[in-house]
Amino acid sequence: NPIRNAANWVAWRLETSDLGSAHRKNDFKADPLLPLEFYRVTPQDYAHSGYDRGHLCPSGDRTRDAEENSITFRMTNMLPQVHELNAGPWEKLEQYERKRAVASDGSLYIVAGGVFSGAPRVIGNGVAVPSASYKIIVVLAKGQPVAEVSAASEVIAVRIPNEPSVAGRPFRDFVVAVDDLENETGYNFLGGVSEPIQRALEATRHAVAN
């Protein structure tokens, strides 16, 4: 987003084939693929801001090889997060998605982003700070086409405030309906699913399996 200098959202697929033994690169860097007219956020934009560089697609979801892990450290994959969120329920949610991918040997389709107020706080050279971070996870069998998604398919939606008060709390405390996130962000997240099934999935606050 050229106004917020932050991603509107990041989406990815997670399967066991994405996981391996590559070490965390920690090579935070500007994204060279942005159009030239966009400001390229650098790690220094977060310096002394009080916010962590919070991954949207986590480093841990791309450990098959060093190159794929390095891509997750582009600054277009970051949002400012308080440490209590980044190292607390957000990290626990990241661990949970990998656990589910391994346990089900399926395909998880994930989208993550920030919820922004009308006039968000900014850090560095105009990087907007979200009031909350959200994630939606659709759990499918490996190779399952969108046409087979049903009202019984598992969809997990989470919205966690970007506040120190979330420290020590489980991510399950912040489960919401997809409809709630669509109303806040203006996005249509499950647009590839037929309208009746989409309405059923999005209106439900789904329980989170262990």
Describe the structure.
The protein is built from five helices and eight strands. The chain has 210 residues and is an alpha+beta fold. The mean pLDDT is 96. Strand 5 (122-123) and strand 6 (127-128) form a beta hairpin. It is 20% helix and 20% strand.
Briefly summarize what is shown:
The chain is of the alpha+beta class. It has five helices and eight strands.
What is the topological layout?
Elements (H helix, E strand, L loop, with lengths): L9 E5 L37 E4 L10 H6 L6 E4 L1 H4 L2 H16 L2 E9 L6 E2 L3 E2 L3 E9 L13 E8 L16 H8 L9 H9 L7
Antiparallel strand pairs: 1-4, 2-3, 4-7, 5-6, 7-8
How large is the count of helical segments? Answer: 5
**Would you tell me the overall average pLDDT?**
96
Structural class: alpha+beta
Radius of gyration over C-alpha positions, nearest whole angstrom: 17 Å
Residue ranges: pLDDT <50 for 5 or more in a row?
none
**Helix amount, in percent?**
10-25%
Largest sheet: 4 strands, antiparallel
Shape estimate:
globular
Keywords:
210 residues, globular, alpha+beta, 20% helix, single chain, two-stranded antiparallel ribbon
